[in-house]
Amino acid sequence: MKRIMQWVMVATLLISGASMTLTSCSNTDNAAVDVKDGADLVVYGKIYTAEAGDIVEAFAVKDGKYVYVGDKAGAEAYVETGKTEVVDYSGKGLVMPGCGNGHAHYSMGYAIQSVGTIVGLEDTSEKFLTEIVPAAVEKAKASGAKAIFGFGWRMLNFQDNMPTRQKLDAICSDIPMYFADEEGHKGLVNTLCMVKAGIMKADGTVLKSEVRGGEIEMGADGTPTGYLKEQASTYVRSFMDNDNLFPVDMAKANMAKIEEQILSEGYTMYLDGWGNYFYNTNFYEAAQQMDEVGNLHFVLGLSYEIESWMDVDKALAEARDARKYASTRVKPNWIKLFIDGTVESGTGFVEPLYPDGHQGLPNWEEEELTDMTRKANANGITMHTHVMGNKGVNRVVNAFINGGKDEMRNTLVHVRNVDAADYQRMADHNIYVTSGMLWHNMADEYTELLKELVPAGMEDKSYPMKSFFDYGINLTSHSDYPALSGSPDDPFGIMEIAVTGVYHVAVGKPWWPEELITREQALQALTINCARQMFIEDERGSIKAGKYADFLLVNKDVLTCPATEIHEAKPAATYFEGKKVFSM
Fold first, then answer.
1. What's the rounded Cα separation, in Å, for the pair 271 and 302?
2. Predicted local distance difference test score (pLDDT) of residue 285
3. To 10 degrees, what angle do helices 420-428 and 390-403 make?
4. What is the dihedral of CA 21, 26, 32, 37, to 10 degrees?
5. Are 363 and 387 in contact (CB under 8 A)?
6. In Å, how far are 341, 354, 362, 392, 461 from 359, measured between CA atoms?
7. Are 63 and 109 in contact (CB under 8 A)?
8. Do you find a cis peptide bond into 362, omega within 30 degrees of 0?
9. What are the tens digits of pLDDT across the range 213-245?
């Protein structure tokens, strides 16, 4: 998960005019599938197909799939009185394919709400210690919980008065406590939590002073302060009471909530960036069970995260084993890695160096990553790799080229900075990118602050988009929910930022305007490109005869409305496999 600082508000670009020219397609050859009887559903309107930018007038659906795509006259032949539902959406907005989210953490986001305590982005360290933690402890003891879990504290609000393990111990010393920050890259823990992880003894004796890929902050007394960064944080969290924190039944209950949210936003497919967040496969199992009884109305991709402190061969075997949970709409076909952290927090792997002279925190050597890519791809598993800094991108691209198979669509996640030469190499080897297109504007109050934190030239030159299209690299959109840092999760809120460089609720400047994309490119990244990322482009992602009928009735024409109004667009209805699964 890309856990950016709260002040990195959103995503890119100024598109002057933001309008596009699309080819009108009133009828097409081979646009129909033979149907003995009438269609189940016929839709009329302005229909964006995501097939070469075509606009058509109508389509017909039978048994969950498009059987005709073309003009209105052709579709009328599929209408059978008393059988066919007809939806005339002419003049009401836009009809388009269901959207995809190329990397999000709905599983973790909803689990946290179920099992943990949410810390508000504006909450101070003082409030955390005097109100939030005591309430979490009281709740845990009343329910008999064996661990206390929380999420959401903001580094900028805590850095001048960082809670220590001793302060947490004073509130609760007999139940392990773990509180992740809003980026998910850092953690605050009490002493018992570190004792269980083998970091120290209860008397303060230090047993482990470092974790590969992370940092255990030490205090003036030579013992851990309770503040953990990057992989040190994930290591300690792995010793929590994870099976009891997040059992299968809870995962199934959360799945229903996830479905409700994403369908209301217009997503019909998404790839979860950390399916084993609680170091088990309960979310996988829950998804499979729901799909097998017909209660899953979206396509779910699942990635199995491997940490740099793990036994890699054992973890790879577990990732392969997790594929047993595959079903029609559940695709457990990815391995997730962290190559580095975030550039804004000083842990991205970069060149030139940070203002203080350090280079970042790479988690894997290139040879290790190459070997892992080779083994994963040989077993039909695609790499899904968090990388932010340009030096990290170069390392990943080298590994994907030298160890991977081009047909496996190995993917870079987030990608803040890229060296010019690596774009062509990515294109030549079919390397994909899923991008936080929503992270492309800067709140004015943080512009000067960034100059003190990131390498020279990287203050606002970050999160490229247009360059990927220019080189023919498959770019998909992701929201990284819940690590939004105040940015929108829905596709149309993301789309507006991607084509204007402005988040409508923020006071800030467009970030790197040269990298703005067109509306059509934004829709491509949100639809067919995401289907390609998930290897389902032959079945979904565009409106085409023979594909599943996953589509939206959008209450605004986002192709022609004023660019500053795109964020107002919402799905009036979401259809999955020809059935309405959400309506306003």
1. 6
2. 98
3. 30
4. 130
5. no
6. 11, 6, 9, 10, 18
7. no
8. no
9. 889 999 999 999 999 998 999 999 999 988 888
User: Would you call 459 helix, strand, or coil by DSSP?
Assistant: coil
User: Which residues 6+ apart lie within 8 Å of 11 measured at CB?
Assistant: 436, 437, 438, 439, 440, 441, 463, 487, 494, 497, 498, 501, 503, 511
Secondary structure class of 93 (helix, strand, coil) = coil
Q: What is the 3-state secondary structure (H, E, C) of 422-433?
A: HHHHHHHCCCEE
Q: What is the Cα–Cα distance from 420 to 579, expressed in whole angstroms?
A: 45
Cα–Cα distance measured from residue 323 to residue 336, given in angstroms and rounded to the nearest whole number: 14
Average pLDDT over residues 423-451: 89
Instruction: For residues 276-284, give the mean pLDDT.
Output: 95
What is the pairing mode between strands 94-97 and 99-104? unpaired
Average the pLDDT over 173-193 and give the result. 94
Where is 158: in which H helix or E strand?
helix 155-158
Cis-peptide into 455, omega within 30 deg: no
Give the span between the Cα atoms of 515 and 59, in whole angstroms.
Answer: 35
| CA distance linking residue 119 with residue 122, whole number of Å | 8
- 188 backbone dihedrals φ, ψ, rounded to 5°: -115, 130
Residue 47 has pLDDT above 90, yes or no: yes
**Tens-digit pLDDT profile for residues 505-532:** 987 778 899 999 999 999 999 999 999 9
